[in-house]
């Protein structure tokens, strides 16, 4: 890894942590809060590419496991992993990877602005929602005993907000990459 890689990974780790400073919104049906940190996950993958984006998220997970209060609401510690939010947290790593991979594979190959922006959005939805939910929902179901049905219904409360975050991440990543081209890794 180059110095630039380390700086970018650290920067996006800090962005994800900073987005956790905004207080979480708790909902009654599932014990998983709504946070802005998933926006940072999608941004990390879309801007940095698959490897560096996943590394930025892995660094946040490592800081969490080490006990630093880097998650929304000042949460941290090894106890977060077996809890209801642990699957979503661990899902950030492959979520950022998939987002970055799709941006690198598809969005970067489109030359026109609107289709490229749509490809960024699709990448953010696929990585930031589909992959993260695919890991988070079963984890929540098992850790809370809610069952897959209730955990999936609970995740629907997040879907609208996460789709808006995906749109914001796509717009920001598209403009950042146009202004400051970073080779995706």
From TrEMBL:
Localization terms from the record: Cell membrane
InterPro entries: BioY
Annotated signal peptide: none
Keywords: Cell membrane, Membrane, Transmembrane, Transmembrane helix, Transport
GO CC list: plasma membrane
Transmembrane regions: 6-29, 41-68, 88-107, 119-142, 154-176
Keyword field contains Disulfide bond: no
Pfam families: BioY (PF02632)
GO molecular function: biotin transmembrane transporter activity
Record bears the keyword Transport: yes
Membrane topology: Multi-pass membrane protein
Family membership: Belongs to the BioY family.
Protein name per Swiss-Prot or TrEMBL: Biotin transporter
Lineage: Bacteria, Bacillati, Actinomycetota, Actinomycetes, Kitasatosporales
């Amino acid at each position: 890894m180059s110095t630039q890689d380390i700086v970018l990974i650290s920067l996006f780790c800090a962005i994800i942590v900073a987005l956790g400073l905004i207080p979480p919104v708790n909902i009654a049906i599932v014990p998983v809060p709504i946070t802005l940190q998933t926006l940072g996950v999608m941004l990390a993958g879309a801007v940095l590419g698959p490897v560096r984006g996943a590394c930025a998220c892995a660094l946040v997970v490592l800081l969490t496991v080490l006990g630093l209060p880097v998650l929304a609401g000042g949460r941290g510690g090894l106890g977060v992993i077996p809890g209801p939010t642990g699957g979503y947290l661990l899902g950030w790593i492959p979520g950022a990877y998939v987002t970055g991979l799709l941006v690198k594979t598809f969005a970067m190959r489109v030359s026109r602005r609107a289709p490229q922006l749509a490809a960024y959005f699709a990448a953010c939805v696929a990585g930031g929602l589909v992959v993260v939910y695919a890991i988070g929902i079963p984890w929540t179901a098992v850790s809370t005993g809610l069952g897959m049905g209730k955990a999936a219904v609970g995740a629907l409360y997040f879907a609208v907000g996460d789709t808006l975050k995906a749109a914001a991440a796509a717009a920001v990543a598209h403009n950042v990459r146009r202004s400051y081209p970073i080779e995706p890794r």
